[in-house]
Design goal:
A two-stranded antiparallel ribbon has the order 1-2. The mean pLDDT is 91. It is mainly α and 188 residues long.
Length: 188
């Protein structure tokens, strides 16, 4: 397939390309944020465990908390791909406008996941420090990073609402009809 046909088919006639970009942006930003947040918290946990090995379990939980945003980005991607039927067996004629809406939903929700995970890693690191100095506060220390998590969940829920609302704007057509549409518009 030549580049003009590719652009025509996935970005101009349909919005499938935009939807895929949005799905992957959600995964990318969520994953980058989670990896960085875990690195920040795990570095603090390693220092704490080097001084007090008995704190491994408590610090492990705190260090792992920023990892959830990567999963939220993955959920957003799956929702976009399933709703637009890109993972389905029927061809989907996602309009370019709906595809752009999926793209911006994935990008913006993914950025929230990224920033939330990094901030949660910083709070988790501070709570690991607290747990090192006062091990009896380990249970309470988990609550503070969870407060940051709240906004990652809000972004996930908002993305799900937008994706679900966009589902009504989709037009599912048989593959043969889509190919005919692209062929008659000069895309292939």
């Amino acid at each position: 397939m030549d580049p003009n046909s590719f652009v025509q088919q996935y970005f101009l006639v349909t919005g499938a390309g935009w939807a895929v970009i949005g799905a992957m942006a959600a995964v990318m930003f969520g994953g980058i944020g989670s990896a960085r947040g875990i690195r920040i918290a795990a570095a603090e946990a390693a220092g704490a465990v080097s001084e007090k090995p008995e704190l491994f379990g408590k610090t492990l939980v705190l260090a792992a908390l920023p990892g959830t945003q990567g999963f939220y980005g993955f959920i957003i991607a799956i929702m976009i791909l399933l709703t637009s039927n890109i993972m389905g067996d029927a061809a989907v004629n996602v309009s370019p406008l709906v595809g752009l809406a999926f793209m911006f939903t994935g990008i913006l929700a993914g950025i929230v996941q990224w920033k939330s995970a990094v901030n949660q890693g910083e709070v988790s690191a501070a709570c690991i420090n607290l747990t090192t100095k006062r091990p009896e506060e380990g249970g309470r220390a988990i609550l503070l990073p969870v407060l940051v998590e709240t906004y990652a969940v809000v972004a996930l829920l908002a993305a799900i609402l937008v994706i679900t609302a966009l589902e009504g704007a989709l037009q599912i057509v048989p593959a043969a009809e889509l190919i005919q549409t692209v062929t008659t518009s000069g895309g292939m």
